[in-house]
Amino acid sequence: MKDSVRITAIVGSYRKGGIVDQAVDHILLSAREEGAETSKIYLVDKHIEFCTNCRTCTQTQGERRGECLFTDDMDSILDEIDQSDAIVLASPMNFGTVTAMMKRFIERLVCFAYWPWGMTAPKVRNKQKKRRAVIVCSSAAPSIMARLSSQIVKLLKSASALLGARTIGVLFIGLAAREEKQLLGKRTKDKAHRLGKRLTADT
Ligand SMILES: Cc1cc2nc3c(=O)[nH]c(=O)nc-3n(C[C@H](O)[C@H](O)[C@H](O)COP(=O)(O)O)c2cc1C
Predict the structure, then answer these.
(1) Residue of 165, 39, 152 whose CA lies nearest to 109
(2) 176 Cβ closer than 6 Å to some ligand 1 atom
(3) More exposed terminus of the chain, fewer Cβ within 10 Å: N or C?
(4) How do the residues of the chain divide into helix, strand and coil, expressed in percent and rounded to 5?
C-alpha cells in the first residue's frame, strides 16, 4: 500500500483563526480527505532567532543544510519539512511583503546555500524539487492589485524552492481586512479545496 502524503504548513500570520489560517485549514482538510497526513506549524508559537549573517551554516560544502549556531526551534521545523512530501507557506501581506515573522524564518533558510567567505554569491546546495508547495497570501487590497504591486509571491516561491519544493498553486486572498473576524468566501474555500487535492496528487 502507498504511504500517505505528508503535508506541513508553515503559518506566518499573527492571528490564529484569521484569514490565512482559515485558508490553510481548508487546504489541509481537503488534503486529509484524500488520505494525507497534515500538520500545521504556527511561527508565532516558535522560538526562532534572527539570522545574524555569521554565515557559519554556509561554509561547509554538501547537499545537506548547513548547521546553525543557534539552538532554537528552526532545526525541528526543517526536520519536519524534510519528512514531508508537500508544504504550504502562508503569510499575510504587511507593508508590501510577508510578515516580519515569516521573513525571519525565510532568512534562516540561508543554511540551504553554500557560501564560503571569498565567494561573491551563494549557491543553492540542492536544486532538486521533490516536494510540492502551495503558497497562501492575503491582503487588505484587492488581490490583483496586491499581487502586481509586490514581490510577495516571488519571495515565497524562492523560499519554497530552498525547501526543495516546486510551487504548484497560489491562493491570494484580497480584501481580507474588512472585518475583525472575517470569514473566507465560498470561491476562496473552493479554491483552497482544489489546491489541497492537488497537493496530494502524484504528479
Ligand atoms: C502592520 C500591517 C501592515 C499591513 N500592510 C498591508 C499592505 O501593505 N497591503 C495590504 O493590502 N494589506 C496590508 N495589511 C492588511 C493585512 O494584509 C490583512 O489584515 C491580513 O492579510 C489579514 O490576514 P490575517 O487574518 O491572517 O491576519 C497590513 C496589516 C498590518 C497589521
Answers:
(1) 165
(2) yes
(3) N
(4) 35, 20, 40
Nearest-CA residue for ligand 1 atom 5 is: 94
d(CA 94, CA 177): 12
Please report where in the chains the cell 507557506 appears, as a residue: 89
In short, whether 19's Cβ falls inside 6 Å of ligand 1 is: yes
Q: Answer whether 200's CB lies under 8 Å from 34's CB.
A: yes
pTM listed for this prediction: 0.97
Q: Which atom of ligand 1 is nearest to the CA of 93?
A: 17
The set of cell numbers assigned to 118 is 571569498
Q: At residue 74, does pLDDT exceed 70?
A: yes
125/75 Cα distance (integer angstroms): 17
Q: Can you give the pLDDT at residue 203? A: 57
- Given CA atoms 94, 98, 104, 110 in this order, what sign does their dihedral have? negative
Domains and CATH numbers, the chain: 6-200 (3.40.50.360)
